[in-house]
Amino acid sequence: MHQTGASSKVNTWKPDVVPWVERWLEYATSPTNSEPMAYFFWDDEGIAMLMDKYDKGFIEDFNAIFTPVERADIFRIVTCLYFGGIYADIDTEPLRHPADWVGPSDLARWVDDITGKSYGFKKLEEEAASPSANGKQPVNLIWGLEADTDPNTNTFWRMGYTYPIQLTQWALASAPGHPALKQFMDNLYAEVLFEKNATTIDPNRADPLTRTGPAAVTLATLLWLEHDNGFRWNALTGLKDGGKTKLVADALILPMTGFSPGRGSYGNMGSKPITDPDARLVHHALGSWRKFDLLVEYGKFCRTVFGLCKDWTKVPTPHRGL
């Protein structure tokens, strides 16, 4: 179990997060019906040591180019890539023990109604609760959706998302060495090289959401599934089936309710109440990485109300450029 903050000193945290972190710690170290897990809280010094040990060739760019928020984004991928486990932001509140996140119904077979291809666990009845015959677990990566919109409309970009079906990364779980996480890092290395060699600066390329955040993990997972499995990304929508969990290869994609329950009527996208059995955790969004920026707020208003300004910058002034 991995969590991070600038400091591990509890008196420096927002008071609201303390009971949530305590619950994660309790779930990890004192579970009721499962084996205990190691719990790691990584402060800035620990993250620097991790990056220096496991990605020494990248450490200079990591420190020089990226903001603290982006470094935290990268860290969660790196720590799950090398160690595996569960990552959750400290402003997430667990609603179910992680050992109960995956049940037999989550592994059920399902069919893409456009391509006719079927996915899910082929031997569900025999092996849902144990490794398959070759020793490989059916699930080695867990993501949740933060956006689920009709790709045939402009709803996604009017709401500020990059993709109609977009993953969140305030929580994830992975086995070590997962190819989707490797793809994320490969994309990041390529982006850094491109920006360092660019003759002009595009401020939108410095958007944390697309460079290291939800859009970046979505792109990495999308590329892996499309390239290695011929998967149609928009098949993950839960708008047509009431929000079912979908297993593709060894990646389990939770519906909106999985990691984004309790959303209001605007932008609900199928999110059910936090009391719903499908809800694993709730994100309280206490982070303040996006400072008020008049230009950014104007673009948001223009997109939401008028359906214009699609390419207007979403990057507050301090984030623009390398």
Automatic annotation (TrEMBL):
Family: Belongs to the glycosyltransferase 32 family.
An example Gene Ontology biological process: protein N-linked glycosylation
Endpoints of the signal sequence: none
Molecular-function annotations in GO: alpha-1,6-mannosyltransferase activity
Gene3D superfamilies: 3.90.550.20
Gene Ontology cellular-component terms listed: mannan polymerase complex
InterPro entries found in the cross-reference section: GlycoTrfase_DXD_sugar-bd_CS, Nucleotide-diphossugar_trans, Och1-like
Superkingdom of this protein's organism: Eukaryota
Protein name as it appears in the record: Initiation-specific alpha-1,6-mannosyltransferase
Listed SUPFAM superfamilies: Nucleotide-diphospho-sugar transferases
